[in-house]
Design goal:
single chain, 674 residues, mainly beta, Immunoglobulin-like, 5 domains, 6-stranded antiparallel sheet, 6 helices, 29% strand
Length: 674
């Protein structure tokens, strides 16, 4: 078998008899057919195998070569490809040992070819087979008595569970990942940050390919229709309260998988894509799950981007050391501590994890952190029942691959104070002090709101949106919910009415159009029709809400009102992201530091320091006192008795101080006689 990096270029002259099983065995070509052309023909058919280390789809690879043409989609032995005139390109997986590589398989015939050549070319395409070393059959996922090698062997709507079918799907997943990375990086180039998805999705900064927001929010921001997993189903959500398609509990506003800052983990058994970003859009993660077992142990696959990083599968060359990384972990005194460490190995081999806590003294901890599994092969959890005294700690994490090569990193841990003190520390996501509450906020349609609960966790709730199964806000309908409407009620004689984003009736399936725009009845391709109320004057949405209007051509328009994150201070906002309205730490009563802004538009003074009222006397800033009191005699000879207190502006309050000499009640010995 050819090395996966070699390029094979085979000319098949039509002056000979084609003995296909022999000629193409090196590229996994199989067929029972033999082809013979007229002797002396000058025509030729060429096949070329090109290593595709970027895992591009055939169409993406074609575009990257800057070819100009009109390629059409084609399927060859279950693999996706394109055909452009005389040439076919197929993105194929090649299994070598326990590793999967992707190649572009190209087949073409010469110009002005004879009809016999074109006919043979068509027969080759029809019977071209790949992966002759992976021929174990499987069953269809529903029709378990039906055996298959590729998905086209199964009834419509089912898929094949054979090893080859899984490889075909994994090749598609890698190609989709490459396309997603390209689209996300292009967005970063144009906008200076990655898509943040601050609203319009179940969870801020996150989306899954089974959620409506995958296309409606994520796809819309990237300006393209996004690929979805070939299976595109989530695993067991864990209860009847979860929507089985999205694993979202609409009542509790929770996702069945694990969710962290900038991360999301899908339920076990899921085959879907996911995207998450940091809150500021400076980094992102793309997730997919493979099933062939020849890409990465466990099947979980993650790509991380930060504006200059790299990621993807490894290679089949000389063994190299793994890598391990962690960001600063945080927690709070007396609470369970949890942190995460990620490691990767270029060969995809299993890793051995080791912890060395000797770099710190774990004062007050129940025990130094230990390693626990997370369900992801390249991630571990560091856990301790109770964190100790506030301060900074360090723990060394080492990973060793099966080749004996190792890597380590020293992970920093910062332990902070208590929830409710008004200062965000440790693992706290927020801390509004006495304003912490377990009473949910109420988000407007198409928007979201956040509140800080009494565990100092930031809870974000989404308002109604198209696709949530409830007709609300400006929606006329929801998928499968037409609110009693039909083609007949919309001015047609028959047909099938449907619902399209953003919640408007789709009459493309209706027939027998009657009426016109302005008659108050939504007809044909009309998105709306308010009769005499149709207008070209846009409505005005209030803060945190949306409104809609119907123009005089019966097109519906959705207008979004001001909201936190639009860079403009409006509504009840004190500030908006980087717009601080001219305020600084000084104007907020502090002596120094950097003022910031956080949702829902309030000042974040965690970066400020030093102020009157912090119980620390800062004489350099003009303070005489700060929350303290004492004997008046400490203020000098002016006073002979009494206790001074501290004013709100950190100056002495001497109203209770007495000079007995002034009032003439002391003896001469206690007064100064001049």
């Amino acid at each position: 078998m050819l090395n996966h990096h070699e390029k094979l270029f085979i000319f098949l002259t039509l002056a000979i008899v084609f003995v296909a099983p022999v000629l193409f065995s090196q590229i996994n070509y199989q067929t029972d057919y033999q082809y013979q052309a007229v002797a002396g023909s000058p025509d030729a058919i060429a096949i070329r195998v090109i290593s595709d280390t970027n895992h591009y789809s055939a169409l993406r690879w074609y575009k990257e070569q800057q070819f100009n043409g009109s390629p059409q989609s084609i399927i060859v032995d279950g693999y996706e490809g394109i055909r452009d005139g005389r040439t076919v390109y197929v993105d194929v997986g090649n299994v070598s040992g326990s590793t999967l590589f992707t190649n572009i398989n190209l087949i073409s015939y010469n110009q002005t070819a004879e009809n016999a050549t074109v006919d043979i070319f068509g027969q080759i395409l029809q019977h071209w087979k790949f992966n002759s070393n992976v021929q174990t059959s499987g069953t269809c996922n529903v029709s378990l008595s039906t055996f298959c090698l590729i998905t086209s062997d199964c009834p419509k709507g089912e898929y094949c569970l054979s090893p080859k079918a899984k490889i075909i799907r994994d090749v598609r997943r890698l190609a989709d990942l490459a396309d997603l990375k390209t689209a996300v990086e292009a967005y970063k180039t144009a906008n200076g940050l990655y898509p943040k998805l601050s609203s319009g999705t179940y969870l801020p900064n996150k989306t899954v390919s089974t959620w409506p927001s995958w296309q409606e929010t994520f796809g819309a921001s990237l300006g393209t229709t996004l690929p979805v997993d070939p299976i595109n189903q989530l695993g067991n959500c864990g209860g009847a309260n979860y929507n089985p398609i999205t694993c979202w509990d609409e009542n509790t506003k929770r996702f069945a998988g694990a969710v962290g800052a900038g991360t999301i983990t899908l339920p076990a058994g899921s085959f879907a894509y996911a995207y998450s970003s940091s809150a500021d859009g400076s980094s992102y993660n793309l997730y997919l799950t493979t099933e062939s077992g020849v890409l990465q142990a466990g099947g979980n696959f993650q790509y991380s981007g930060n504006g200059g990083g790299s990621g993807g599968t490894g290679n089949n060359g000389t063994p190299t050391a793994p890598s391990v990384s962690c960001s600063t972990m945080s927690g709070n005194t007396g609470r369970p501590f949890t942190g995460y460490v990620t490691a990767t190995d270029p060969q995809g081999s299993a890793l051995t994890w080791q912890l060395d806590p000797s770099g710190s003294s774990w004062t007050g901890w129940s025990a130094s952190p230990v390693i626990q599994n997370t369900g992801l092969p390249n991630q571990k959890q560091l856990w301790s029942l109770s964190a100790g005294a506030a301060g900074s700690y360090t723990i060394k994490v080492t990973v060793i691959n099966t080749s004996g090569m190792s890597a380590f990193t020293n992970c920093p841990i910062v332990i902070g104070g208590n929830c409710g003190d008004g200062i965000i520390t440790g693992s706290e996501q927020c801390d509004s002090g006495a304003a912490n509450t377990n009473t949910p906020c109420v988000p407007a349609y198409g928007s979201y709101c956040s509140y800080c609960n009494t565990n100092c966790s930031l809870v974000t709730l989404n308002g109604g949106y198209f696709g949530d199964g409830i007709i609300n806000g400006p929606e006329q309908c929801e998928p499968g919910m037409l609110n009693g409407q039909s083609c007949a009620t919309r001015g047609f004689s028959g047909g099938t009415l449907s619902c399209s984003a953003p919640g408007t009736f789709n009459t493309s399936g209706c027939v027998g159009l009657t009426g016109s725009c302005g008659d108050g009845v939504i007809n044909g391709a009309e998105e709306c029709d308010n009769g005499g109320a149709n207008t070209n004057t846009a409505c005005v949405a209030s803060y945190g809400t949306t409104c809609n209007y119907c123009d005089t051509t019966c097109h519906a328009h959705l207008v979004t009102g001001p909201y936190y994150g639009d860079g403009i201070i409006n509504g009840s906002e004190q500030c908006d992201t980087a717009n601080l309205n001219g305020q600084t730490c000084l104007t907020q009563g502090f002596y120094s530091g950097n003022l910031a802004c956080k949702a829902p538009g309030v000042f974040d003074t965690t970066g400020c320091s030093g102020r009157c009222g912090d119980n620390i006397v800062q004489a350099a800033n003009g303070e005489q006192c700060d929350g303290n009191s004492g004997p008046c005699t400490a203020l000098g000879p002016t006073y002979t008795t009494g206790t001074y207190t501290c004013n709100a502006n950190c100056t002495y309050n001497t109203s209770a101080c007495i000079n007995n000499c002034i009032f003439g009640t002391s003896t001469i010995g206690n007064c100064v006689i001049q």
